[in-house]
Protein 1
Amino acid sequence: MESQQNESQRQVLMRFFKTGPGEYGEGDEFLGLKVPQTREVVKSVAKDFPLSEVPELLMSRWHEVRLCGLLILVAKYERLATKRLENDEAAILGRDEILTLYLQYTERANNWDLVDLSVPKILGHWLLLPTRCFALPNPSSLTSVDNKISLLDTLAHSPNLWKQRMSMVCTWKTTQLGDPSWCLRYAEIHLHHPHDLMHKAVGWMLREMGKRISMDLLRDFLRQHAHDMPRTALRYAIEQMSEKERQYWMTIPV
């Protein structure tokens, strides 16, 4: 990856991901690789790349190398999360091992793209799959929603912006799989978050929930909250609606 460094692209990425003093990506360093280049590296190595060596990638100073490590985890997780392997004991343990490693290095996913390209397909998918991660009250059960909520709540209430974003954006996968409850819960928790990146995440996830599951559920949420939602979140949430309906929601007094 270092051999593909591109100085002009590096400068573009540093501006795009706000790496200047006081900005949300302050101090992040880039090689200047585009995402398809990183995906090509992942495609060539992911299958045989030892899980034990992924932390070396996640600890890299280079943004793209950290992304490579995260996408290797995604690729490994997805191979163990197919319909055929959902209840397979070895696959359950393998998924839990990947999730545990991911959670140990959440602070290395320290920009919005690193979060958005990894968390739905690992943590988000795990929320709706059997797990052995916890000491369950009922040993015969492979699911414990309360434990999963507790884990996600810990991320949501962390002082770390990227962990907070993880708790919201991971619901993209639960929405895709037909469960709106995660999106609605964490949209409410983050509704008054002070950061614009979270306003965008909340609105984006609500929009996806409305589009994929139920526009009526989205309208119910807006009837309760549109009057005090950040305008960015509201604009993102209503993007799939007609122009007339968008105007209606945007004119609700704050």
Note: The chain is about 60% helix and 0% strand.
Protein 2
Amino acid sequence: MATTQKAAPAKKNSGFGGIKQAWIILVICCLAGYGVWYFVMGDPSNFVGGDRSGHPANLLGTVYKGGFVVGLILTLLFTVICLGIERYFAIKSASGKINLAKFTADVKAAIKAQDFTKAKDLCNKMQGSVANVVLASINMYESVENDSTLKKAAKIAKIQQAHEEATQLEMPTLQMNMPMVATIVSLGTLTALFGTVLGMIGSFQALSAGGGADSMALSAGISEALVNTASGIATSWVATVVYNFFSNKIDKLTYALDEIGYTIAATYDSNHTEA
């Protein structure tokens, strides 16, 4: 266990680790979303005669007519964009300063050659989550190699345990805020459906009133329904792309860690024949 803690100082150089208080982003995006809906889209110049209750003069005015649900959808859209930017820098920092494929190949070659000094130098140059995990595994390798009280199987188990523990310490940084993005994938569509239902309710109320005077109310209800449907689907689309993109990035890091961890354990196994 003591050897796994040696890798901890390397995290000081791992750079941006992500925003832990994601609710702050949500609050800021909520203010921005409703601000854009009310002050930008609801600007009097976007309506015929400068009256918000009147007919829209352009697309912004039409979107404003979607009602308060538009502000909620904009909140979700801005949130997923901000979280996407946050995840980009966090995962880029965790990935290290060297190309991941090159680092994996070089550190595997160094480990197979039992050149642990070179492997550690590569980790120090790489930095980030991958380097932290590899360094912890190498430290445990060197520690058990000098421990004559353990059998070979126990030593390999301790190397694997050190690798798994170091990986578990790094995974929260990689996966932080991803559940919120996944939630927005569903919330975007559900919010769109909610806004659509509200718009259709307004349309049916205008239709039940009858008469030509209610044609504007009818069209306003239909417009509200369609605007909310389109904007909600667009938000879910963006959230889906962001989630899948960064999930793929995290999977690549995880695969690289598993590959190197297997190499370290296999190297010890092949170079030591004692029972």
Note: Residues 1-13 have pLDDT under 50 and may be disordered.
Protein 3
Amino acid sequence: MAKSSYVSLEIGGRQGLPSDSLTRVPTPSLAELPIRRLTLRDLTACADLSENRGWPREEHKWSFLLTAGRGYGIDDPQGGLVAACVVTEYGPQGRPALAAIGMVLVAEQHARQGIGRRLMRHVISSMGITPLTLHATPYGRPLYEELGFKVTGQAEMLLGHFTAGGPESRVATRAATAEDLPTILRLDEEVFGADRTHIITRLPAFADQLCVAEEDGRLIGYAAAWPNMHTHVVGPLIARDTETAQALITTLAAHTDRPLRTDIDVRHTELLAWAKERGLASVVFNSVMTYGITELPGDGSRRFAPVTVAAG
């Protein structure tokens, strides 16, 4: 049985006790604190936890993830959260084909005490036989490997002010309309390998820009740029080929003064080199990991960047 820790509370003026009397009130140990579902009411606490670990607060992203996915957290008896994460499911409701785990955070003062491991084991158990995926930082990768996740890919985060250049693209792009949504959904499921309707239908409200690429009236790609603190994040980025991906990024960049950030699958070497030539610099490499499957479903040749690494 886990031991309890104690805090001292000063009680005075009751039942004849002197004002300086102390009573010891037990508080649960970290191992005893329950894991619960998070909701939008926990948005500020989630943002505080991000800030505690030196991440941006990212309230806009947290709000998106908490509504499109399921949050899990552990409350700190002293206030705030000890730990949190979000799980986003894809595929038929009740029978997901894939689930992405993201925003796995443990407060600095509670780090290296097994809390992250306990939270991840809870999530893995709750998902049953559903295949899982996540993007792991170099710091988090050892824990995920210990839990049975395997590295199946890698993404390179790029950040910077985009500078247009080179020959004019032959790919036609335009702002997406409501009439494009059914076609975007069909293309996205084909490329991603699972239904993401609950994610894609939220993009018009979540993103500042949503554009499509066409050829002969046929949709061959789409991309969004959504606000995250002082940047615009490009994602998702689905495209027939590198030239189409370049045209979509160029279109999004032309309508913002903010730095662009995106996470490109490292297999797309041509797009990475092109983006770096236009001002985006490498920030970090994250490992794409899976649990229960040996590789991600869908068509990786047309999947250039995720909505966010937290949601796959």
Note: Confidence is low (pLDDT under 50) at residues 1-22.
Protein 4
Amino acid sequence: MSRTRVLASNALAEQRVLVTGAGSGIGHAIALRFAELGAHIVGLGRRKEPLDELVAEIEGLGGSAEAHPCDVRDVEQVEDIVDRVGRSGGLHGLINNAGGQFFAPAEDISQRGWSAVIDLNLNAVFAMTRAAYPFLREQGGSVVSISLSGVERGSMGLAHSVAARAGVLGLTRTLALEWARDRIRVNCLGPGTVLTEAFLAGVTDGAVVDHLIEDATPLQRATSADEVAEFAAYLCSDAGQMLTGQLLHVDGGAHLGSGLHLLPEENT
């Protein structure tokens, strides 16, 4: 068994957890790990095929899952799916993982590009979390939003994404205060450099990748998707009952180092 797996095998038994962006990368790892811990997974993503593969993989491991293709930027679609999922069996957890960005100096980001990243990484998180609220309130549930390492300090090349994720952090801390009365816990995770296919497709300069890991991360290694998944599961488990309003960095100390900057060396 992987050393990253520290929770008891039934830590999330009988929970129903919705994971956005579940078809690939960190979301896929979270969905698998939560299913291993006994949760029923509701996977959302833009493309049906990877979601179907996820469901088959979970069921092949003896777990339980369902999938719903969804554009999380479409508020009406989000509200409809969450309402149907919640009414069919309740909702104990929400993992806001869907997100994305491109890398560019701030002066090269168009208004359209800015708005697209804000919409996906901030507005969609609010819509999804708001839609889930009545069902999470019934269970005293948990919300975990996947953020970025260094969101409080800035990352060159990510002005739009850092602005959106900083907004999610502010939202998280506000909801942690407002929804404490409902026993809903709301937290963020800040992964470091996770070498997903999407990340490597966006950062094609190997020197930048090497810098992120070898120079900007004190522990000098990438964060694995499995490590992010284990922390997300901890926050949704009984072991994490006293954690709310937090940003937990799973980044090898990168938020303390020189910063995870996504511009080539000549631009920095």
Note: The mean pLDDT is 93.
